[in-house]
């Protein structure tokens, strides 16, 4: 993993920690054209793990971990992200797999990442 990916991971981890109180335990990013594809493992807090013991709880946490994060990124791009990439963030797609305690986010930037 290169320096740019490492710094990108640090930015994403910091933002997630500020939002949820816990950042991912492991995080990996790959740059492809104008996209940063980030996989995160060990994302759930102990409270979230407890809540997800019911089907309704899984739905609540899934919503909080997908739609909420997308809405937050629309309002405010994490500090340093666009400067690092050299391009404006256009879209964020995110999904979480509760049972596997993992998430995938795809960040779409205006220009190719070099």
**Sheet with the most strands: spatial strand order:** 1-2-4-3
Q: Which percent bin holds the helix content?
A: 40-55%
Radius of gyration: 14 Å
Class of secondary structure makeup: alpha+beta
Strand content: 25-35%
| Helical run tally | 4
Q: How many strand segments? A: 4
Average per-residue pLDDT, rounded, comes to 95
Oligomer: single chain
Would you kindly provide a written description of the structure presented here, covering whatever features stand out?
- The protein is an alpha+beta fold and 114 residues long.
- It has helices at residues 3-20, 46-51, 55-75, 81-85; strands at 26-32, 35-41, 89-97, 102-109.
- Strands 1-2-4-3 form a four-stranded antiparallel β-sheet.
- It is elongated.
- The model has no long low-confidence stretch (mean pLDDT 95).
